[in-house]
Amino acid sequence: VRPCSPPRPRRGSASHRACLIARYNFIYAKERLEAEAALRRYVCDLETVQRIIYIAVVESFRSAKMAFWKVKINVKDTLAICHRGGPSSLEVAVLDYIACHKDLYDVCCSVHEVVCSMNRNPKLPCPGEVDFVVISGLIRELCCLAFSMQTLIPPLDIAFGIDGECFNRDMYYRSFDSDFTAPFVAYHVWPALIEDGTVIVKGEVVTKK
């Protein structure tokens, strides 16, 4: 961590939050589809492709949040030396500092970690069938976005879904190829974005009987 320097003012956090939410929507609308197209060269089944991307999102957020936690500890230890306010103001100063110095995050390490984790996932095709490096661009964008979302108060996160759960219309949209009378989620296409337990952006699922 660098020597103490003035953090970015938090008054811009509302616009920063809006930009991060917009970025999440953009990744869903464009870069997710590009990743699907890249995977379809190796995997014919659309369901498998969508499962791969969903797990990539979940693993990217998990890896980025873990990396953020480690960076935050180091930054807090350093800023505490010269900080003159209370614990709450130190917390804000730490978040502002990390938001201002994004290069503290080694995103390449997270991308590698996510790819390795996916290669070991028993629900996905084995590494010999498809190399998940083909969607490393998507993984990188998700990791960077997830890391930045942790600098908000409260942070933004994704809701982790489970196959077979009851369909929640407040949290998900049904995919176009769903059985619209089915009450259960067959699999998840895209996770919902949440803030302090409240759904900010709905996810997408496939429902089948």
Automatic annotation (TrEMBL):
Cell compartment(s), UniProt: Cytoplasm; Mitochondrion matrix; Mitochondrion outer membrane
Residue stretches making up the Mitochondria-eating protein C-terminal domain: 17-207
MF-aspect GO terms: lipid binding
GO biological process: mitochondrial protein catabolic process; mitophagy by internal vacuole formation
Keywords recorded for this protein, A-Z: Coiled coil, Cytoplasm, Lipid-binding, Membrane, Mitochondrion, Mitochondrion outer membrane
Pfam family, one: MIEAP
Family, similarity comment: Belongs to the MIEAP family.
Protein name per UniProt: Mitochondria-eating protein
Species of the source: Hypocryptadius cinnamomeus
